[in-house]
């Protein structure tokens, strides 16, 4: 369904404010200026055991001005979207740049980008979740909870729903003007089983956050009925499962788990600011440094990874980024070799000779009008094999292994290299067949060892676009939503830990 930009956003005097700010910045000597006007709406809703526990509805509106003056960035912002405030912000941003100039040893130059004259983009969704009465949402979740609580194997049910509506206007001194709107939702349901001895076990739904609207919960896009029906028995089986024997196993990893490993070991590692050492304080830098471009053996030859800010319903999908760059798709890993990074206009210009490209791939983003745009993650995805096997065929090719489903906890070092991941549930594979659940499983490896053990990727029928609402980066901290697609995949000889033993239990 095609939607129009939110009228409340369009009613703001953003064009007049942007024109005034750009002119004031240029009059003050700026060589580049850009303006963002944003209206961000978020709603978080929590239902516990069928009763509303929390409802938070927040709206943020603001105006941001960024300039380049004498090769130095300047930035200011305000919650007031007026012409007078825009002029004040522009002059203040130039003053910030002048003050900062003595500290700047690398003059700012931006990669060229075509001018986009008054373009509009709206994400693909049917029902704006903010038009649905919260009482209807609570009623739906109360019904889901009651069904689960009717089982003797479920003692508590928690339902969490996060929703966002993001409106953004951008204009720059080159003449680009964009107006965009996107919607996303993240529903999660967790069932808990309490043992008589005081222990407990949990099981969460596998539904992923998506760039859809309310139709994702009620419109048949996800099979909630089947998952709710089987959750109690899956939870009971998990609670009674045997504890894993640590050692080397072949792993068949479902997209509901593998997306997070992609996020941590590929997505963050191929952000160019980390590879250059500019981003270090928040979750570290990267082992995949720029001097290894075109030579680093990231994984096996079946590994094909793309960055993409255009895929329908992706959480990082947008028409133009926060530097006016039209979004695109590109290769990050090809045939197992590192061939590309995620970057913004400044990094593209600075490193054009090594990168072999002179244009940004559209990865600049700010999570609010109060923050400056930084390089943020695209939808980074492992591609399926065109005629690849099914999940069942991958499992059939394993003599002794584990099938991993759903994400849970994770840990990775400050170089995005040494890691371990757990999951929602694990099935023992014996002789090519699933023979029951296991407990206390974590897989551990280095990034290149893990992806080097990738023997096969499933076909398009196994491909799922997962992701997260809450990817953190930068200081002051910024949060961004991002998707990661992948097929079911087979990894040989991966080290598996027993988390209970590792924890001294």
Shape: globular
How large is the radius of gyration? 24 Å
What share of the residues does DSSP label as strand, in percent?
35-45%
Strand-pairing-aware structural class: alpha+beta
Quaternary structure annotation: single chain
Largest sheet: 7 strands, mixed
Mean pLDDT: 97
**Total number of helices:** 13
How many DSSP E strands?
A: 23
List keywords for this structure.
single chain, 13 helices, 505 residues, alpha+beta, 5-stranded mixed β-barrel
Q: What secondary-structure arrangement, pairings included, does this model have?
A:
Elements: H1 7-10, H2 14-27, E1 32-48, E2 51-69, E3 72-78, H3 83-100, E4 119-122, H4 134-149, E5 156-172, E6 177-194, E7 200-204, H5 215-218, H6 224-240, E8 242-243, E9 247-253, H7 255-267, H8 272-276, E10 305-308, E11 329-334, E12 337-338, H9 345-350, H10 352-355, E13 364-365, E14 374-375, E15 379-382, H11 391-396, E16 400-412, E17 418-430, E18 433-439, E19 441-446, H12 447-452, E20 454-457, E21 464-473, E22 478-486, E23 489-498, H13 499-502
Parallel strand pairs: 4-6, 8-18, 9-16
Antiparallel strand pairs: 1-2, 1-5, 2-3, 5-6, 6-7, 9-23, 10-11, 10-15, 11-12, 13-14, 16-17, 17-18, 17-19, 19-23, 20-23, 21-22
Helix pairs in contact: 2-3
What can be said about this structure in brief?
This protein is α+β, with helices and mostly antiparallel strands.
